[in-house]
Design goal:
With 552 residues, the chain is α/β, with parallel strands linked by helices. It contains 23 helices and 16 strands. The protein is elongated, with a radius of gyration of 28 Å.
């Protein structure tokens, strides 16, 4: 029997009813990767984040300790044995690792909620863990994470693992028959097979990677990319999992749920990181006003208003087309009032609006903050995305996704009415997942930290766009995006017919053949698609350049 992939109240009631029917006396939980998970994903990642020196010393010390004990016929090691090798000579102690681990752990809201429900239903609960940490240290972790204090049994105490006799020791200690016992854990061998060999019933909890990939949140390549991106990448993966666990289950439709989840990821990570950076700029540089340009400034604007309500921020409805409106200057003057130091946020890319305002408001000081800048950066332009030249090409594709989804529900604004109110474009989209995405983006997830860095948000965006999951592609397959007033095309292309049409290709990393096809055909498809995208982008940018030359 498998633990519910998406935990909800109904599933809990089913388990409780089943336990009562079978007269279950004890439910035990694995600790690491079940009841808690690590921000560093693994303990090896935690050691590497601390220092490469500590990683190598700690790894070698444990290998030597295990070899010594295996020779003696002992299947487990203790912290004291590991740190008696040579670690103390370099100034490292087991207390140092314990304190480092304590701040590295995050309580799994999924399983902790279930544990509390069991206690409320008078079911005995305990923790069984294969670990070098002592029982008292695990209890310390529980107190620090505000998890109920329940009996703890570790392999360190008995020098036996779950596969070599730990379950027998726990059975003797609790005086519980195996048939009246349920164990919950993530490891197929030590938690499931070992427990089943004694007749213990089991519920398998899917681990971080298995849940995110299995439920279509991330592709396997996206997970690998984040893990290989070092400490920041692992922190990004942990953040994604935390938001995934804390997501509200508001719909039975999986595509709707995942669209909301992507909204939560982008709205509560990318949007928050942008708002945080601009808030710092406002407070340190004393700006009189912040203008969040429509439409891609919508989510950072909402986050800024919510988290820093005392900052002077306005949602600035503007566009390149509006710059040509005769009423535009009057409209902007009314917004600015007597303010003299203005910060403008825009997604990018070259600062057309910023330059226009500088040329027409000579007595006002402007500075532009952008997620991504292309071309030569000017003195009054700040790029928030920490990505360097190595990932600018990749992030180009994310622009199309952000400009389509990272926006308000309007179609943008091209002109200004007689009352100086921007007029929405008449073009209407039929895209149902847009509302789901925005609904997720504006949710305030209380238990998720809100101090996201731009480094983490940049990696999350790159993972989603460069390595999209099949589910993500299917959810956003009907998205269209306008790259100029006349050209409109889908973000994804999934057939030869759509590839060879006149529709622009805007998100090549998310495209692929839907029908089963051979690997060579898929490769040719991607090559042709990339060539078409390069041609169309070059043509579009070339047209803009010629237009600028002719107008000057």
């Amino acid at each position: 029997m498998h633990f519910s992939e998406i935990y909800d109240e109904d599933a809990t009631e089913i388990y409780i009813a089943s336990f009562k029917k079978d007269e279950v006396e004890v439910v035990s939980f694995d600790f690491f990767d079940t009841l808690v998970f690590r921000k560093s994903i693994s303990h090896y990642g935690m050691w590497k984040d601390q220092s490469q020196t500590f990683f190598w010393l700690r790894s070698c010390a444990e290998i030597i300790s295990r070899i010594k004990n295996r020779v003696k016929g002992i299947p487990e090691v203790t912290s004291a044995e590991i740190y008696s090798i040579f670690l103390k000579e370099f100034g490292f102690t087991d207390e140092f690792e314990f304190e480092m681990e304590k701040i590295n752990l995050v309580a799994n809201s999924d399983t902790v909620s279930f544990l509390k429900t069991l206690l409320n239903n008078n079911v005995r609960v305990c923790i069984i863990s294969d670990t070098h940490y002592t029982c008292s240290q695990i209890e310390n972790f529980l107190a620090f994470l505000e998890i109920p204090n329940v009996p703890v049994y570790t392999s360190e105490k008995f020098l036996l693992t779950k596969s070599t006799g730990l379950f027998e020791k726990v059975s003797d200690s609790l005086s519980v028959p195996y048939v009246k016992w349920v164990h919950i854990g993530d490891n197929p061998k030590s938690d499931i097979e070992s427990a089943n060999s004694f007749g213990i019933s089991t519920l398998r909890y899917q681990g971080l990677r298995e849940q995110l990939v299995g439920n279509g949140v991330l592709s396997a390549n996206a997970v690998k990319f984040l893990i290989k991106s070092g400490a920041q990448g692992r922190a990004a993966l942990s953040t994604i999992f935390q938001i995934y666990l804390d997501r509200p289950v508001s719909s039975t439709d999986i595509s709707s749920r995942v669209a909301r989840l992507y909204g939560s990821l982008i709205g509560n990570v990318v949007g928050v990181s942008i708002a945080n950076q601009i808030h710092v700029a406002v407070t340190t540089e004393n700006h009189d006003l912040v203008l969040y340009s429509s439409r891609d400034g919508w989510l950072p604007y909402l986050n800024h208003k919510r988290d820093f309500p005392n900052d002077p921020v306005i949602y600035f409805k503007t566009s390149r087309e509006m710059l040509r409106d005769p009423s535009y200057l009057k409209y902007v003057k009314e917004l600015l009032g007597s303010k003299k130091k203005i910060l403008i946020y825009d997604l990018g890319w070259r600062g057309t609006t910023l330059k226009y305002l500088e040329d027409n408001f000579l007595n006002v000081s402007f500075i532009g903050y952008y997620w991504q800048l292309l071309g030569r950066q000017k003195n009054n332009q700040i790029q928030l995305n920490p990505g360097n030249l190595r990932n600018r090409t990749r992030m180009w594709r994310s622009r199309d996704l952000i400009e389509t989804l990272f926006t308000d529900e309007s179609n943008g604004y091209d002109s200004i009415g007689p009352d100086l109110v921007p007029i929405e474009r008449q073009l209407k989209e039929d895209y149902s997942k847009k509302k789901d995405f925005l609904a997720g983006a504006i949710m305030h997830l209380e238990r998720v930290p809100r101090n996201h860095s731009t480094e983490i948000s940049s990696l999350i965006m790159e993972a989603l766009v460069r390595y999209p999951s099949s589910l993500m592609i299917s959810i956003f397959s009907d998205v269209t995006h306008t790259i100029n007033s006349k050209s409109r095309g889908r973000l994804t292309t999934d057939s030869w017919r759509s590839l060879l049409s006149r529709s622009p290709i805007l998100w090549s990393f998310g495209s692929g053949l839907v029908k089963p096809s051979s690997h060579p055909e898929k490769l040719v498809f991607r090559v042709v698609m990339l060539a078409k995208e390069i041609f169309q982008r070059s043509r579009y940018l070339g047209g803009r350049l010629l237009k600028r030359i002719s107008s000057s």
